[in-house]
């Protein structure tokens, strides 16, 4: 059994869209146990699912529930690596809907730090860029962080590991309790961010690791 975050909105009735990164066998690596099985399924095949599960809910207008506790935030810092984009994508998608539909003028601003090996590995880039254009770069900033930069880089491309100084810049201007950090990626990266939050007094309770 594996846990996946849908990329379709819960407003899309009758459809469940899941983004799955396929890891094929290579050398001594046998490939992903579940992803290779899913890849071999014929169109029209059935798969059992259950859910939803998880402890974080975004209710709109900056209101969140995490571990049964209610929060009101002004900003989301979302840090993702590879296929870990799916939980942040859901929140970004909801904020985008509430803003563009005119249902809310109180949505939090957002930063997305999205790490990948190469530009070709960036999942959902077209959708993220389109939502940023609709929301506005002043309210939704994206940093595509790559291990290998292309010859021609967009202004929002960077390289190098996420650091404490990077985090300090992201939280500048926000008091503890005004902002939540949403994390989904490699365990060392997640641990580094949570350790930083504890050491700086930002608060582990404002860090959500998916």
From TrEMBL:
InterPro entries according to UniProt = CBR-like (IPR001834), Cbr1-like_FAD-bd_dom (IPR008333), Flavoprot_Pyr_Nucl_cyt_Rdtase (IPR001709), FNR_nucleotide-bd (IPR039261), OxRdtase_FAD/NAD-bd (IPR001433), Riboflavin_synthase-like_b-brl (IPR017938)
Give the organism the record lists: Candida boidinii (Yeast)
* Domain Flavoprotein pyridine nucleotide cytochrome reductase-like FAD-binding: from-to ranges: 1-58
User: Localized where?
Assistant: Mitochondrion outer membrane
Recorded protein name is Unnamed protein product
| Cellular compartments per GO CC | endoplasmic reticulum; mitochondrial outer membrane
Pfam families per record? FAD_binding_6, NAD_binding_1
Q: Which Gene3D superfamilies match?
A: Nucleotide-binding domain of ferredoxin-NADP reductase (FNR) module (3.40.50.80), Translation factors (2.40.30.10)
Positions bound to FAD: 2, 4, 19, 21, 33, 86
User: For the Oxidoreductase FAD/NAD(P)-binding domain, which residue ranges apply?
Assistant: 79-193
């Amino acid at each position: 059994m594996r846990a996946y975050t849908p990329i379709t909105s819960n407003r899309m009735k009758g459809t469940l869209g899941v983004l799955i990164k396929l890891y094929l066998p290579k050398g001594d690596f046998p490939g992903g146990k579940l992803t290779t099985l899913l890849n071999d399924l014929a169109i029209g095949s059935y798969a059992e699912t259950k859910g939803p599960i998880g402890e974080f809910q975004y209710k709109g207008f900056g209101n969140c529930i995490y571990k049964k506790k209610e929060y009101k935030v002004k900003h989301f810092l979302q840090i993702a690596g590879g296929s870990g984009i799916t939980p942040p994508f859901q929140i970004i998608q909801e904020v985008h809907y509430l803003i563009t539909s005119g249902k809310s003028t109180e949505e939090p601003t957002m930063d997305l730090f999205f790490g990948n090996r190469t530009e070709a590995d960036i999942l959902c880039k077209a959708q993220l860029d389109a939502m940023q254009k609709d929301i506005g770069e002043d309210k939704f900033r994206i940093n595509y962080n790559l291990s290998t930069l292309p010859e021609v880089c967009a202004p929002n491309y960077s390289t190098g590991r996420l650091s404490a100084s990077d985090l300090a810049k992201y939280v500048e201007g926000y008091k503890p309790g005004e902002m939540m950090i949403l994390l989904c990626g490699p365990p060392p990266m997640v641990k580094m961010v949570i350790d930083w939050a504890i050491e700086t007094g930002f608060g582990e309770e404002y860090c959500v690791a998916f």
